[in-house]
Design a protein that fits this description.
63% of the residues lie in helices and 4% in strands. With 150 residues, the protein is mainly α. The chain has a two-stranded antiparallel ribbon with strand order 1-2. It starts with 6 loop residues before the first helix and ends in a 7-residue tail after the last helix.
Length: 150
């Protein structure tokens, strides 16, 4: 039985080619969650010396966890859908535990494509991103075994 919350949103995203279906090994999310944990650990190591990179890695860790949930459902964001499709798919289906991902995605875009060369991240902001990523990864771990192919 597939996950029904947000079902119409996922169907719309598939029709719009923001998401695509995947099969076989690509439809297994556990590896994504493992990767999320490794990347989060790397982010923690950089928080003192390079808060911008720590923030970016925290975002990547959260994204990998979200991608793992989608993979478990046999879903994957396409190039046109991108990171925004990942955000929309997980928040519409899984709710408030994944809302911080949207904030992180927007901030990560500001850091990756800055308006000014001196864009910075304070340590406290990076710490909040690490906490949000850890929370997203934890929520994903709790959910993954309850998901089947969409």
């Amino acid at each position: 039985m597939r996950w029904t919350r947000g079902e119409a949103d996922i169907e719309r995203m598939l029709a719009a080619k923001e998401l695509q279906r995947v099969h076989g090994g690509a439809a297994e999310g556990a590896g994504w969650l493992q990767k999320a944990g490794v990347v989060l650990s790397s982010a923690r190591e950089l928080i003192e010396s390079d808060p911008i990179s720590a923030y970016t890695l925290a975002y990547d860790a959260a994204r990998f966890a979200c991608a793992g949930l989608l993979a478990q459902q046999g879903l994957r964001a396409t190039t046109p859908g991108g990171h925004y499709a990942v955000q929309q798919a997980v928040t519409r289906q899984f709710g408030s535990a994944f809302e911080p991902f949207g904030v992180m995605r927007r901030r990560r875009n500001e850091l990756e494509y800055p308006m000014f060369p001196d864009e910075s991240v304070e340590r406290e902001e990076a710490e909040r991103a690490l906490a949000a990523a850890a929370s997203i990864i934890e929520a994903a771990h709790k959910m993954i075994d309850h998901l089947s192919l969409f």
